[in-house]
Queue: 2 jobs
Job 1
Amino acid sequence: RSPIADAWARRHLTVAFAAVFVGALGGLVQAFVRAGWMTLPPWLDYYAVLTVHGVLLALVSTTYFIFAYLLAGNGRTLGDLSPGGRRFVALGFWLMTVGILLAAAMILAGEASVLYTFYLPLQAHPLFYIGLALFVVGTWSVAYALIRQYFDWKKAHPGERTPLFAFMATVTLFIWWIASLGVAATVLFQMIPLSLGWVSGVNVELSRTLFWYFGHPLVYFWLLPAYMVWYVNLPKIIGGRLFSDALARFAFLLFLVFSFPVGVHHQLTEPGIRDVWKFFQVVLTFAVVVPSLMTAFNVFATFELTAREKGHRGLFGWIRALPWQDVRFLAPFLAMLFFIPGGIGGLINASYQMNAMVHNTLFVVGHFHVTVGTPVMLTFFGASFWLIPNLTGRTLPAGARRLGLVQAILWAAGMLLMSIAQHALGLMGAPRRTAFTTYQNHPVAESWFSTPIANYATMAAGGALLFTAAVLMVGLAVYLAFFAPKAAPDRAEPFPLAEAAEEGMQPALLENWRLWLTLAAVLIVIAYTVPLIDIANHGAPLVRGYRTW
Ligand code: HAS
């Protein structure tokens, strides 16, 4: 056990689940408003609710859960935080928390209805941006402590293979560090000066490009910890070993190299970036799909290998051997299934021509609910069933396991309804972001969006199931943290850490950080230098902010 890291992991989890609760409530309200089932009171703006929903679920709950998981896992594999590391984690946690409280207060006050992408020229209150800046700096501090912990261990154990968990945590945190430089640049040098009135206009295309340089690797910062659960924890839960440790490390390194030079695939419809660079980044987007396919192979091979080792035969007979009644397995497995359409949707988005059809429609909203909303969130929910009791020295009672199965199935059912409706509505041209009220009661729009599937009511019904599942999850998290039976020392619910099936040393190449970080830097320079010069030289005239408050 690692008492210091565990205490900080518990604090991070508390914020994560508080954000899940408020964020899910925002989602429910929004789906009901779109379906016309609810009218907001005049003092509550639709876009403020949408911003709360996106910021709390996509940015806050994920980041805090990820840090909790990485702190706990590094503690189990590398040992506890050093006194220095502890100071960086404490500083980071409080900076993040003060920052996010400031930003959330501004959103709730209706002074920052800029959505979770907070693009310019939409302009929020300066305190919103200052809050965001504090949040980002705070994450750097926690990330520094964890990366440092990994390299200290490596130095103290020359020639030894680093633990897979800590290796993966380090890749994930490097991705966060390098990516967040982009968002920090636009917040510090464009958004804060504009909102304080220090400058009269900003280069919006530059801001969007810096944002998406951050925004796409951000999705891998969310995804990779879910992959860690699949690679490191799940094989142990099913009683087996990971098919290939080396392949898993290589997949993570490919994410480190290919996550960044692809952000322009979010800007395919924007002027100001030449086609050749859009094409180049689209090609690299298809490269970043490869490590996900490698993951699907490695994880599925692990399932099959484990079941066959236990004596199950036949082409599909081994599937029956998987622990379907165990929420610690079922929730992440359902999450994986959702990533199949999630990945296919990503490929559609990334295909230059098809993007023109789906961009800025509800299809994209459907896509991110079957990526971050389910593969990531449902995996985190499933992991909570061992992470929370492990961190609080408790057991996981059978009743909680059963309710966990109900939670996972409710979430999956709700997401199925909602995301199918979103994809279908998007293909029929329903816009994203736009409040439904702007075309409500228009007879053509109403008849167009009223088929059984492509229907706002189907979407809202899914949203209601999702909200129920979120409340159940938060209730279970509170129960596991405070009310589940206390265990004798070392008898708490274990933190499952699997071994790998293959033996022997890894190729040294896989831990040559200088090489992989240099490759990442080279690709970033190639993909972004000319587009940024173009944007600076020939970009649109400086634009005044559009104040949302
Ligand atoms: Fe995305 C927009 C392209 C992955 C999140 N994406 C978004 C937005 C979000 C988001 C939040 O190219 C909206 C941003 C906004 O607000 O504007 N995305 C991709 C591509 C991938 C991808 C190519 N996205 C993600 C992940 C996300 C995420 C992961 C969150 C965690 N995305 C785009 C594009 C846009 C976009 C464009 C802009 C659209 C626009 O115009 O605005 C790839 O990484 C996907 C690769 C994944 C796979 C799936 C592999 C499957 C696995 C499951 C294994 C299953 C098993 C079980 C083992 C190819 C690993 C099998 C069991 C059996 C029984 C068979």
Note: The longest strand covers residues 122-123.
Job 2
Amino acid sequence: MADTPQETLANLLSEDRTFPPSPEFTQAANVTAAAYDEAAADRLAFWEAQARRLDWSKDWDRVLDWDNPPFAKWFTGGELNVSANCLDRHVANGLGDRVAIHFEGEPGDTRAVTYAELLDEVKRAANALTDLGVEAGDRVVIYMPMIPEAAVAMLACARIGAPHSVVFGGFSAAALSSRIDDAGAKLVICADGGFRKGKAFALKPTVDEALESCPSVEQVLVVTRTGQEVAWNDRDVKWEDAVGGASNEHEAQPFDAEHPLFILYTSGTTGKPKGILHTSGGYLTQASFTHHAVFDLKPETDVYWCTADIGWVTGHSYIVYGPMSNGATQVMYEGTPDTPHTGRFWEIVQKYGVTILYTAPTAIRTFMKWGDDVPAKFDLSSLRVLGSVGEPINPEAWVWYREHIGGGSTPVVDTWWQTETGAIMVSPLPGVTATKPGSAQRPLPGISVDVVDEQGEAVPDGGGGFLVIREPWPSMLRTIWGDDQRFLDTYWAHFDGMYFAGDGAKKDDDGDLWLLGRVDDIMLVSGHNISTTEVESALVSHETVAEAAVVGASDPVTGQGIVAFVILRGQSESSPEHLAELRAHVAKTLGAIAKPRQVIIVAELPKTRSGKIMRRLLRDIAEDREIGDVTTLADNTVMSRIKTGLQGGK
Ligand code: 6R9
């Protein structure tokens, strides 16, 4: 993140298309326009009403304690058990036979787990963790593939008040050990491995390697997923023995609303990863409410599918805590979208009759690249809400998603939020908002997001600047684990009394919000701040382009010159004329100032496990430097392939 925000962002892209919800959708929607008025009239009363959607063992004394800002406490004095809110209360309400998880393994193995079965397994796991000496307040690191046991492990930790810290399966031993160390974890829960891209991959050896430098860890609980050979140490315990052999009787104890629920590490571009701390009552209130409101979940009839990994905050809030607190039936898929074929996602939607799909722009752009004919082979008519998260969604990708996946009629909700915010902050409401391709639009009821200039003054409609949050919100991070000072410096030091999200944004003439990417990625061309997002969206609006990543490379004349890395759609081919046409297309769409100095065709782009493009690595290529730290890449061999491709193409 840039130390100080620079000048106001140029505002280049405009969008006139809007899609109001159908009257039928509005009629049946969970949340209506009245929610905005209620929250505007009394924000705290609004959140108090949302907290009442949960079961509390003890009522709170105060909704918000903001006596020592920016250290917030929500629902102080209140007590609840997060796991009981996700499981026990549904079973007590006679919903034990409802499927909680339709699991689809990558090799094609399937399991349907009901709420009663999930509760049974979580109770056993809670007992097993207690038997292994884990107590309330002890930290547990979870390093697993996308299998039901990952959710079981999280809910069992929550049940006994042991904060979990989930690390992406696939992170290196060094990344894993630095997180285990920072959290001071006592136990690691992992699997032998998982399935990805048609092959079994191993996790346990990485844990063994990581633990060489982690003295805090006493035991490792290992789930058998692939059955591959693994080295066995004295500290290792088989999940099947410990959990399988434990009692399924377990009474969940209530914890304070501010009891730590989890720590999740954000990669951060430099320095050591930040352990974002979330607590119980406020977090669950907002995760649960936003899931109900933004996806319009009808738990009796909907089949919900969030394609995120459990190691990303999206997996925490919108696979585990939000959906399960609402009693959702959901699909959990272990693998990649192109195994064994590029229609795998659509085959799953058709098979389970998925009604609500939540995925990332990176996936949508990949589907565009694979071609319209792939989803067209499947029956996707069950879908009624489509969501997007993780990066700005280019207007063309948004329109493609609605057309080719949503049959031209489903609302598309572009949801802006962060690990730090814990839950969705800015998004359309599907039964209320006339949606606009590419815009996340409005802060949700009870949330006060704004765009300010470098002095911290709100920009008028039509202006661009920095996204801030003016008032505390229930699921906000409470601090950075073990480092209050870094919490203050990172988020609260830029603008007086406001949370700085690190993202650039603009307000259009209707006051709708457009996210323009991380402030560190913003380019400075001939004295103008230009967002990577807008140039990328202009490129993606060309019929031959599926995906684009744009960086500013130092330029002797303009300060920075725009270099675009482009992936072509389907069978498209490039030529010098085509490259010139792409550059001209950007100039025509956004103005001459945004015309790329260079367009480079590539087959893939460097992305994190949650699908975010790592522009910093592309900047290294554009400026002909040694490639920087690649440890958080989904595939750390991609950079050498991109480089080789470039050399080969010269
Ligand atoms: C949930 C999640 C947070 C950063 C955030 C922003 C980007 C996420 C977005 C979006 C534009 C959206 N981001 N959703 N940008 N539109 N709908 O992604 O959390 O991994 O912590 O990343 O992702 O830059 O600041 P996290």
Note: The CA atoms of residues 66 and 72 lie 5 Å apart.
